[in-house]
Amino acid sequence: MKRKLNDHDVPEVTAPESPPDTTFASLDLEPRLLRGIRDQKWSTPTPVQAQAIPLALEGKDILARSGTGTGKTAAYLLPILHNVIQRKQRETSALVLVPTKELALQVSKLAQSLAKHCGQDVRVQNIAGKESQVVQRAKLADLPHIVVATPARASENVNNGALSLKNLAHLVVDEGDLVMGYGFKEDLDNIAKNIPKGVQIFLMSATLNTDLDTLQSLLCRDPVILKLEDPEKDALLVKQYVINCAEEEKFLLIYALFLLKLIKGKTIIFVGDIDRSYRVKLFLEQFSIKSCVLNAELPLTSRLHIVEEFNKNIYDILIASDENEILGAREAPEQDESKPAKKKAKTGKDSKDSGVSRGIDFLNVSCVLNFDLPANYKSYFHRIGRTARAGKSGTAISLVIPKENYRKHKPTTFEGCVNDEEVLEKVEKHQKEGQKIENYGFDMKRLEPFRYRFQDALRHVTKIAIREARIKELRSELLKSQKLNRYFEENPEALSHLRHDQNLNHPARIQPHLKHVPDYLLPGGKKAAAADIGFEALDKERNGRERGNKYVKRKNRAVRGRDGKIDPLKTFNKRGKGKK
Predict the structure, then answer these.
(1) Which residues, including other chains, have CB under 8 Å from residue 186's CB and lie 6 or more apart?
(2) How would CATH label the architecture of 233-507?
């Protein structure tokens, strides 16, 4: 092991480069854990796992910076599970703190999967949900080996005596920068006062900033700092594009991008707020384009179900609302109102679970579409980090409104777009070497034939329709509670009713003809004949009808006068029927 001075002129231990032939078997992990790793179909450890696990088994504190999706969770879970099995004691020896309930469930599920073959030697409990104190106290009374919680829930249970930390051996703070940003400082102070001396500390984060420095000084003694750059970013696998457009043209663009299949594969559409997400969903429904919305209004189980099914390729388009994302408020300390901003983050942390550019894993995303740009450049890079994962390529497209086009179309104006150009300028300034944002080069004139169709669809997406859609989905999701689990186990075919991409539009608002694109509208295409677009005259004459319905074939006979001319009035009798 080598020592060198860090940025603060303090000597630190740096881990040696892991050999290329490192395997999980070579890390001396418990054999039953290796079986769990094989079940996960992991072939070799990631760089952060190969470096962190040996150090963790030696008992060292670790502060690891590694990109989202690089295996940080397993990097601390595997050594903790190994030590729990070796200790063979019925006590709570590990506490994992995470910023959101979704991430807590993700961590607890992975821990249970890795310890699948360990039986009762490893017991994991997640207390980050909305259970009552009685339920949580019952869970903790069983003395689970590993407890996963948000700092607020952990601190609350420490204060009421339900969670005992006297035998704690491992403390993990996952996504440490977000934990500090969410306003959990007081809760962490309380936990730090109650943990015994000598507890091993894991601080995991995608960034190293001042928030993490504060957390390090609060918990760590002399941690090993691992700074691993995200190899996917170094590979420049994310192609970044920008399209300058007017406010209403955003909807015209997504109509063209999806209906003409210019975007293929799974896509995450990031919008500014919840109303905006439902406006986009209802607009896409006009053209029979299925999508689902993920936001903080939905119950936790519904949000997790949406993420799971998106990862299973059941949905191709996910609309995410990031208006509560903590990264959007992270630049507040530069302003005069920094203290009120922190207080707001503290009181509103339960409503911020919807930020999806961090923490939650989204698999095989081929495109990230920034329908609305985020509040700052940090959020932009975390958003586009959802694609180009695991060595795959990806695309990021951002729709930007120039200031001269802002507030020119009142029905589609969004206040968060006022600073689009400034945010884009900062994004370009912080691009790494070799990375750049290119102009998509979209010729808006070629979309003119589509304009009347998109305007017709956009007129039907009113504020009333958006409100009704939100209420409808909330009522629907509340009915799909955990009480139905037993029923669905017995009737698995009924699970089709739980799809989250069902139409939310107002009855009779969807116009079926809009899902078809006539050839004459395509750029460079030929004008199709009336028969090609399914045209049918409204006054089409019926020459005959089915006998089964007791209809008879009728013929209108022309009646000619003495001069030989046809008199149309004499073709009908007094009852309006044709004369025989």
Answers:
(1) 155, 346
(2) 3-Layer(aba) Sandwich (3.40)
